[in-house]
Every structure is written in structure tokens, then in C-alpha cells.
Amino acid sequence: MEKKQANNNILGNHLINQVFFNKYKLVKKIGEGSFGMIFEADSPNGKVAFKFEKKRPNKRSLLKSESDIMIYLKGKGIPSVYLYSEEDNYNIMVMQLLGKSLENLIKESEDKKLSLKTVCLIGLEIVPILKFIHDKHIIHRDIKSDNFAIGYEDPCQIYILDFGLAKKYRSSKTLKQIPMIKHSKLTGTARYASINALKGYEQSRRDDLESLGYVLVYLLKGSLPWQGMVAKTKEEKYAKILSKKINISTEKLLKNYPQELIDYLKYCKMLQYEQDPDYEYLMGLFKNAITTKLNESIDYRFEWVNNDDLEKHQKYNEQSIDLNNSNKIETSSMINNINSLTIGNSKNNISLEESNAKAKTQREKMSYYDEVIDENIMIKKEKGKENKHKKNEYVHDKKGKKKDNYEKKHGQCFCLII
């Protein structure tokens, strides 16, 4: 492991100040792991993050799968993806640069833990993000403090990261969930994994929510009872963690903390595999803990924000509201002028046929991503692509369809611009 990290450091130093695609200049390395490395980079439009993944022979790219899922999701709390590229030794994703992770924030805090209000506000922010992901038929499967970060420009906004282990849990057409089979290995991080995930059962929405509960307990207390367990093998360690999670009661785990937090975790543990979680109820628990138990207002006053951050966040929200209102006005105009030849548009007048064609194109594009993130389809496409063109890349035409044998040079690298 030390040798691997040393190699990563050497590669990282070599890449500093390198320019990719004639527009992105790597500034510094901001993270690394078994997947590869993450760099901060400058671009004409501002700072971005570069994520490198070392290619694995005969194995599909987790980074490719992650970029497809993030493009498909695209919403509040989901980082934007700007570019994906496959190179000789590495796969590269260029994405929105974010601020510190929740793990970094707790380590930098004076008491190595966060306040009750901040933790409840975090829960209140993350539950709707998970609902948004789940409503689009995806589960994350690696909920942990490292995989949530605040915005780089707006520290009041929380984002969810690392969709490398995410997958579809049900058909987007029939809404039928995949069978609840038992696996031999755990997918995710044992410290925050649900009890059923540690037992090896197929994961669903309940597992993401239960994992979030353990993350919140960790942020609140600074540690979890099953941390630091000594074992000879990984399997033995997982078994010890599972045993501890099963045997410690939720009341004991959250002793001296509001009943609402106990109710959250107990509810998540009782959810059935295919049951629709009551996200509104879970959000209500956090709201009640803030307003009733703490007698505080529901705002964005996390421990790490100041008044300037709050003003900046308010401006972002106002811009978002203005954009939404603009879209509503345009939609209303479309309905009112359904029998006319043109539709009012702020930039120019477009025909009804053109508007319908544009909407159809968007649906087809989303349909493509909905299909490509299905694990089985993904494997078939990747295998077929490897057999025909090992280094072949593709882009999508305006209808979202795949084009083979397309390569385009940008500086040092070939790239897929999304």
C-alpha cells in the first residue's frame, strides 16, 4: 500500500501544472484512494475537479459508470460533470469542484464532533437528496462522511459524492425491484453499512437511509461503538461490526439525545426491502428536533458558515427561483398558445414543432442514460466495445444515440465532452 501511494505521489507531482484539453491546468492534488487521484484545476470558466482512475484490464470503468449516473441524475446536491475521457492508462472525469467533506469538517472541529443543530440540518438537507436519487431508481450503496461535501462557492449547500458503487435497484419502466438475493461480499463501507448489507443481502433504499443514520450519529458523537475493532481478517472484522450493531440498542446508541434521532434510526431499521420510505416523516423528525427540542429556526447556519456565506447562499437561491419562475412562465405560454404557430421565448420565437422536437430529444437523451446505467446492459456494451475497439471512444448525437469510431483530439488527450 505504501509503495502504491508513493507511486501516486510521483504521478501527482508529474501532473501538476500540466494542461489538459487545451483549457484545464492542474493546480494541486486534493485527494486519492484505491480508485486513483483527484486534482483541483483552473479553467477559463473557473475552478474544476479532475478525477483520475487507473484502468483495470478486462474490467469496466467505475468512473465511466459514475459519470453516466451523475449526468443522468443532474439535480440539486449532485455535482455537475463537464467531461469524461479514456486515455492510455487512465480514465478521466472533469467535474464541479466542491469544498470540504463532512469527514474533514468533523476532524477540523474543536471537539472532533458537530453540534446537534448542525447534524439535524445536515439530515434535513441529505434526506431530500436521497429521495431525489431513489425516485430516479438509483441507490448509492456507499453512504459515509467522506462522500458528502459542502459547496466550494456556496458552503451552505451539501453535495453527495462518489457514485462508483451506485446502481439501479428497480426497473424505471415497471418499478419492479431486483430480487433480494444474498451476496458473499459487502458493497460499501462497513462502519456505516446497514445491518442487512453487512449480512450480505441485496441493498435497497432502506440501506442508504440507515447508513445515513450511522453517519449522523458519528458526526454527533465523534465516533461509533464499533470503530477500532481488532481482527485477523476483514471477514472477521465485518462479523464483529455486525454483531455490535445488532446487539446495541438504538436507545443506548443515542442516549441523552433527542427522541427524534432514535425514531429516525429505528424507522430505517424496520423498513422492508421493497417498502417505500416516508421521506417526509424522516424530514419532519429533524425539523421537530430543531424547532421543538432546540427552540431554533430552520436555517442554513451550519457551524462552518458565516454571515457572508448566508448572504451568498440567499443570492444563489434567488437566482434559482427566478430561473424556475421563468420556466413556469414559458410553460404557461406554451399552454396558452397551443393552437398558435409560435411560442413566446425570451431570446426568439420558436415553432411548436421545434419545441416538441427539442423536448423529445431531451427525453431520448435521458432514456439513453436510464438504459446505460443498468448494470447488465452496461456490462454487455463494455464487453462488446472491448472486443471491437479497445481504445475506441464514442460521443452522442443530438438524439442521444451512440456513435462508434469517433475520436477527437484536444491537446494531449482524447475526450468525450458532455
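^ that was protein a. below is b, sequence first then the C-alpha cells
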Amino acid sequence: MEEVDLHRVFFIHGKLDNIDIKSLKEDCLKSFKNSKKVSNDITDVRNEDLKIPKSKAFNNIVSQIQEKFLKKYSQKIKLDDFWAVVHRKNESTHTHDHVDCFDIKNSPDYSAVFYVQVPDNSGVIIFEYPINKYNQTKRWWYPSSEGHYLIFPSTLDHLVTKNNSDDLRIVISFNFKVDKDYK
């Protein structure tokens, strides 16, 4: 008997080792402090994508995620894009995916998050996925914690609930493409 996988909803998660959380936090907070971007969209809380530099700690995250993905799926992934998100009290992220509707072919294949700072009551990530052709969906939430990562298909809808903490919630987000040249 052979199984054929027509449709699957999944994410993988775990903790990364030997990550310099302190330097990542400093990079994220520096960008947050210097950012003057505010979204013109009245449905947004603000424009939350923050540019951060590539660093030794950042590269360590990327290489560990790539190694774990390769081990699990025998596929190499290449970094496509990345940014930081810092949520103040009462901020959240609306439901979205990471597909470029104007360029689906070149959209990322997988997305990931790495949790730099996650105070108690600072929100959770929720994945929302279709269960049938009648637009019915289910939701799955993941309790994030510092030093942990998630990898999921870029097409998967997700959101982050409100930060009810007085402290900042800090994450780094990534988009990856499958390396089609890897054999």
C-alpha cells in the first residue's frame, strides 16, 4: 500500500542552540527605536516590519533552521527575506500569509519565526487553515517561547494575538525558497 499526500497542513518547531539572544534583541530594539514608518492603512496597528542587520547570531539562526529543514525533508532552503517585529502592549498582527499575489511563482515556499523575547501574556501565533471547499476553517495556536522557532508553508494563514504584557514581544521573521538545484 502506498500513501499519496494530496494536501497537508503542517509546521515544525523546536528550540535552537547557542543563539546570542542579547545581541539579536539589541539589533531589533535599535531598529524599533529608529523606525519612523507608520502604515497609511487604517486597519493596521502600524507598519511593523523592521530592518535588522545580518549578524553572527542572525546567521546562526538561519543555518540551524536550514539544517533542521534539510534533515527533516531532504530539501535545502535559501533565505529570501527577513525582518523583525516588535509589539508593544495591545498590539497584534492581522491574519495574513506570505504569498505575493502579484508574483506567485516567485513567492516564498516556507516562512519561519524565531522568538527573541516573549513575556508572559504577550500573545500567541495562530494558524488558520481550510478544512473543506465551503470556506470553513480550523485554527491551531502555538505557545511561543524565547529561543524557539517555527517553520511553516508560506501559504498558511496566520496571525498573532494581542500583546497583553507591559513588556515588548520581539520576533524575527524569515521567508525561504526551496533550492531547486539541490540534489
